[in-house]
Amino acid sequence: MNRNKNAFINGIRDGIPIALGYFAVAFSLGIVAKKAGLNPFQGFLSGILNHASAGEYAEFTVIMANAPYFEMVFVIMVTNIRYLLMSCALSQKFDADTHYGHRILVGFGITDEIFGISVGKPGVLNPFYSYGAMVIALPGWSLGTAFGVIAGNILPVSVVSALSVALYGMFVAIIIPAAKTSRVVGGVILVSFMASFAVSRIPLFDGLSDSMKISLLTVVIAGIAAILFPLKDTGEHEDKAEGGAQ
Fold this sequence. Notes:
Blueprint: H1 2-35, H2 40-49, H3 53-64, H4 69-79, H5 82-91, H6 100-108, H7 112-119, H8 127-151, H9 157-181, H10 183-201, H11 210-228, H12 237-240
Helix pairs in contact: 1-3, 1-8, 1-9, 2-8, 3-4, 5-6, 5-7, 6-8, 7-9, 9-10, 10-11
């Protein structure tokens, strides 16, 4: 029980900067939500159920277009499909005896940044670590959306745009330490940047959503890296683990 508590507290600690970045980015999305006709409570609820910038923006766009619910479900599913891959990858970090309920709950709360700090933990991942990050980061996202609705167009566009930069700096802070400790990880990150830029410039991929492009690149690049540079099981991961949860 103490191990779960410690993991939860560590997750909250690591999730605080994520929550701050989320609040800033979601604030600008809240302004879009206001234009779509949502009130602050609806904006908050949207952030709790759909904690992804691209997915939430797509949601508000569909609402403004008065499209049917089926189209909204389809658009959000395609936009957020990369989180399915992240959830599957993160499940491999759990102890084999981890209950499926934990796997489902962690999968629901997966975001790019929460996945980054969770998958970066050495050894077996305690789901309570992810819970700690989620319990502070996701409300930050939802509150940001709600306050964005309240603020509306009061703040200048330049101020809102400046706040959004915080998320990119935070994401860089997640990947840099891993790149420093592993040449393979650093190389994969560099290749990912170049491939992502190339795909964004090739007209052949213009018909794909940004999320679909990211998902395809993730599968291809991660698959090649796994084949060329497989991880060696040293048997030491259990000693580094924070403890599994049943």
